[in-house]
Amino acid sequence: MTGLAITGILLFAILVVAHLMPYSPTEMSFTAVLKPPSWEHIFGTDSFGRDVFTRVLYGARISLLISVCGVALAMSIGTAIGMTAAYFGRLYDLVAMRFMDLLFSFPSFVLALFLMVILGFGVVNVMFAIALVYMPLFARLAHNMTLVVREEPYVQAARATGQPSIRLLLREILPNIAAPLMVQASIGVAFGIIIEAGLSFLGLGVQPPTPSLGVIMADGQEYFRRAPWVLTMSGLAVCFALLGLNLLGDGLRDLVDPRLRQRAE
Amino acid sequence: MKTLRYFIGRLLIAVTMMVIGALAVFLVMKAAPGDPALAALGEQATPDAIAAFRAEHGLDAPLIEQFVSWLRDMIGGDFGRSLTIAGGESISKLIAGRLPNTIFVGLYAVLFATAISLVIGSVAALRRGKLSDTLATSVAAVGVSMPDFWLGYVLILLFALTLGWLPSYGFTSPFESLSGALVTGLLPALAISAPMAAVFARTLRTSLLENAQRDYVTVARSFGFSERFVFRHYVFRNSIIPYIVIIGLQIRYLLGGVVVVERVFGVPGVGSLMVDAAFARDYPVVQACTIVFLAIVLSVNLTVDVTCAALDPKRTQ
């Protein structure tokens, strides 16, 4: 519930409050450069006099979008691979899952960084990087769940009636493994935000002037000693978003797990 | 005997993964846009100079020949030469100089994370449902939600810029001065350890609570052993295996954290080398760093597997 509340507040802030702010994320004011937090500027201003709170709200929108798209792509491809590997088995299962294990063996951020070097920097490539990092997780989860569900009587019955395999996978198996995948997706979005923030912070992800959370933190790094609030407050916003998503994921897991455990027994 | 066979089996799998991983990295790097000759010689290079560079580095040979030659060199410890950031210097020498710093900071972080999580996880499990449990699990939830590089800057603000107790930038190699490395590595290690400690603590708490309800624990209590004895010799010892497994699994995230935190604190490690090489489009260095990180993960996974097999021989069946 706490996770849902925090995530709800976050979504409300980035979708509604952002538009109600008296400042724009790109509006510069050279008389208000590097002002500390105050009633006028809750998170202070940056080196161009831009309101940091407004930039964080718009930046959070972009970071969340990148992460959600990346995780959605990971979930689609990973689930397809995991499900089909578990259902059809044999050589395809061996090759596909060993490839997923190999991808899983690379440190997440290192793999994302490697991909950015190959593909180049930018919003879309960060999405692909997040997708590649999380694909093995979804593949493994879908694979393990499909192995359990595959033996259920209703799946055997559907197979006996001659249902085509793809239809059986989509209509009988997928709906019954969707719940843990959604739990993983929620946690995946949180870590996707960390990856995007890390890549953009290093200058290897989203490029300025697009205001993602990582880009704002990178801006704040340059004059950290003079104006520590830019990096600190934008990072605090990231923590708030991550806390909400992690708690939401934990809550969903508690909801889903007892029922899953019963079925596996 | 069974443990030895298990170890050999796991070692073979690790070596196979390493070779296939190296092949994958090599092939993907070959597909990257841009000519390494242009990257090394600059945009003003003449066609003759480019042709000579490509001939010297075997860039015109068939792909499989290039891979075999590169793999052979890599097994011999030669990762080739840097194209741009270190102007022709041996990549192996660059990495060898930096790897101890990365491993030191990584181990330091694991040490902190283990120490913090053993306390928090045990307190949360022993005082389940009470205020200390709620506090411990809340701290763990917050800990796992903090980007490590942001935490690094918060620690710099507090301990370096405000209190002045610790340096904000720079790292002393452990070979130069162990005490210097412990002081300069403290903040980077703390920054990386916090999210990991949170995950370890939660795993330990779950594992302790599950084991505390097992039949053999009830039997131990019925023998009249003290609660402390039962906890230490029955509950804790049997909870340690999933805990060690999660430490192994978290190495992937730890190494990611190391890459960014090395930049924040100016630690001259493999992570910061990889970032510098990424900016300079020094593909051979990026390739070598990726493979080194893969080797570290596979080595740690192998160590965790064998340790768990030694602690619980049922795993070798």
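qc> The first helix of chain B runs from residue 2 to 30.
qc> done
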